Amino acid sequence: MSKLTDISYVKGVLKEHGFTFSKALGQNFLINPSVCPKMAELCGASEKVGVIEVGPGAGVLTNELAAVSHKVVAVELDKRLLPVLDETLSEHDNIKIINGDIMKLDLRKLIADEFGCEEVVVCANLPYYITSPVIMRILEERLPIQSLTVMVQKEAADRICAQPGTRESGAISAAVHFYSEPEILFKVSKGSFIPAPKVDSAVIKLHIRQQFPVSVRDEKMFFKVVKAAFSQRRKTLSNSLSSGLSMSKQDVTSLLEKAGIKANARAEEMTMDDFAKITEKLISE
Question: Torsion over CA of 96, 101, 107 and 113, rounded to 10 degrees?
Answer without folding.
Answer: -30
